[in-house]
Every structure is written in C-alpha cells, then in structure tokens.
Design goal:
Oligomer: single chain
Mean pLDDT: 95
Shape: globular
Number of strands: 10
Radius of gyration: 19 Å
Order of helices and strands: HHEEEHEHHEHEHEEEEH
Strand order of the largest sheet: 1-2-4-3-5-10-6-9
Length: 312
C-alpha cells in the first residue's frame, strides 16, 4: 500500500523548479571531497597519470572531476574501466575504487590499459545523496545530450576508447536509506505514489539483459562470497523487483535505462551492489567486497577475449 507522501511537493504532481530548489535547500555538506577523494588521488600521482576530465560548477562549490590512468597507457591493449561514486552516497564504491587503485592496480599494469574514475558525483558524495543539485540521478542519465553534467563528463572521457574496452565494473551500494529517503523522494519528484519495497541483505550484481555474461558474473560472485555474504532472493524469487537469474545476480537494460555500466562496448560489464547497513558486514568488509569484485572482474575479462572485442 502507498504510504505518506514526501515532505516536498504536492501528491500526484511532479516537481517544478520551486520544489527542486526546496529539496536542494535541505541538503547539507557532511564530508569533504577534497579531503577524502582528491587527497587520495593526489597521493597516487607517482603511480598513475592523474587526469582532470571535467569540472562541476555548482556555485558556490566547484568540483574537479578526476581519474587515474595507467602511466604506461599504450592504446593497443584491452581497456579496463572502474567507476565509483556515480551515486555519491554509496561510500564503499568510492573507497573501494581508491583502494583498488592504491593496492592492486599494479597487478594488472602489464595486462591492460586501466582507468579508474573513483568519484563521478562529488556533490552527492559530500551531501551523502543519490542525486545531483538538479535532483537528477546521474545513473539514469548516461545518454546522448545528458542533462547531468557528471554523466556527460564521464561519457566524454571514455569516448575515445569505448570500442576497445574489455571490462567495465561500476561500484554501487544498496542502502536502507534507499527505502527511507531516496525512493520516496523519487516518487514525489515524479508525482507518483510511493509503495514500500525491501532492501536485500548482502552483495549482488547487475548484469546486462541485452548482452548477459553469466560465467563472468558467477566468477565475481564466487570471489566476493569469500569476503562477504551474497544477497538471497526474496519470497518472489527477486532482488529489488527483478528476477534472480543466478545466486546474487539480476539483469537490467543498461543502455536503455541510461546506466553507467552501459557507456562502453565492453563485453564484460557489471554493477556491484554492496549492503553497508547489514548487521553482518563492517565498513572494511564492504570496501573489501568492492576491491575483490574489481580484481575478479578484471582477472576473468582479461583471460577471456569477448565477442565484441576489436579483432575478435
């Protein structure tokens, strides 16, 4: 049954500019992108080429968008793309990407051209929110003429190598606040009633319904299961409303939905979902799950040329 409406807007009427402004006024900076992300990126300058691929001017705040690229980028090898923080509030995605870069990327430097974009949405990271200041979800905005500058900037960054990408892993979380804040806000913004759902307890993956890679997804699940628990299906055999096609795996239409994991032609693509609010997982365990997923994804993909690879 639908529940009480969100405190901004009028039930049944989509938000306009006034409602978006009222929502934005409620958001408060809760942590520092400069201290937690840019400082970590700067510490890796000796091991990566640090690339500024854009800048977000959200007055009075300005956010440089930074990525880490292989110093020995050759241009004739498979590309491995790791993205985090597309939803800024999903902390382990950002920290997991940075930890992978700092502790594990060297293991792959002779096998691929690697690019890590650890925090795609810094405004949302600081305010621990899913949206950008326009109340837009960057992870529904990876499309031509994107209205979200975060998404548009990342698409420009990868455009030159999208066709030769081998693997893209996009690091996310599903949190309790998805149900208490973000889904109610989405329903209110779009003028729809909010119907409660559920939050899966554990790690899961989102495959591409249009180009599924079940063996690849299974390799990642098997690796992560040694670090943290895998989310079970609910009583309907689903996770967040989608059928479970294998333990811990569901499928979305990545490109039609404008999702980050669909921005390249990589044959191996996945979105991780960590559950940081679980009573059975620590912050360190959540970060480790993300790092383990990246390692497993790259190991599998670089050992299995895909059908969309150039020359195959």
């Amino acid at each position: 049954m639908p529940t009480a409406f969100y405190p901004i807007g009028t039930p049944g009427i989509p938000w306009g500019a006034a409602e978006v402004a009222a929502w934005r006024e409620r958001q408060r900076r809760q942590r520092s992108y400069a201290d937690l992300v840019l400082r970590a990126v700067d510490e890796l300058r000796g091991r990566f080429e640090v690339v500024q691929y854009g800048e977000l001017d959200y007055a009075p705040d300005v956010y440089p968008l930074m990525a880490l690229r292989s110093r020995r980028w050759r241009g004739d090898r498979p590309v491995a793309l790791v993205t985090g923080g597309v939803h800024g509030y999903e902390t382990s995605g950002v920290m997991g990407a940075l930890q992978f870069a700092a502790r594990h990327a060297a293991d792959f430097e002779d096998r691929c051209d690697l690019l890590v974009a650890p925090c795609v949405s810094p405004w949302g990271f600081e305010r621990i929110h899913r949206w950008n200041p326009q109340a837009l979800d960057p992870n529904r905005s990876f499309r031509a003429d994107s209205p979200a500058p975060e998404s548009a900037a990342l698409m420009r960054l990868v455009e030159s190598f999208a066709a030769r990408a081998r693997v893209h892993i996009d690091l996310h979380e599903t949190t309790d606040t998805d149900e208490s804040e973000f889904r109610p806000a989405l329903a209110a913004r779009d003028g729809r009633p909010f119907t409660p759902g559920g939050i899966p307890d554990g790690f899961y993956l989102v495959d591409d319904v249009d180009a599924p890679q079940p063996d690849f997804q299974q390799a990642v699940i098997d690796a992560v299961a040694r670090v943290t628990h895998i989310a079970p299906a609910d009583e309907r055999g689903e996770i967040i409303g989608s059928p479970v096609v294998a333990p811990g795996v569901i499928r979305y239409a990545l490109r039609p939905l404008g999702l980050c994991a669909g921005i390249t032609d990589a044959p191996y693509r996945t979105t991780t979902e960590v559950y940081p609010d679980s009573a059975n997982a620590t912050v360190e365990e959540c970060n480790a799950a993300q790092v383990t997923a990246v390692r497993a994804a790259l190991d599998y993909a670089l050992s299995h040329p895909g059908h969309r690879d150039p020359g195959h």
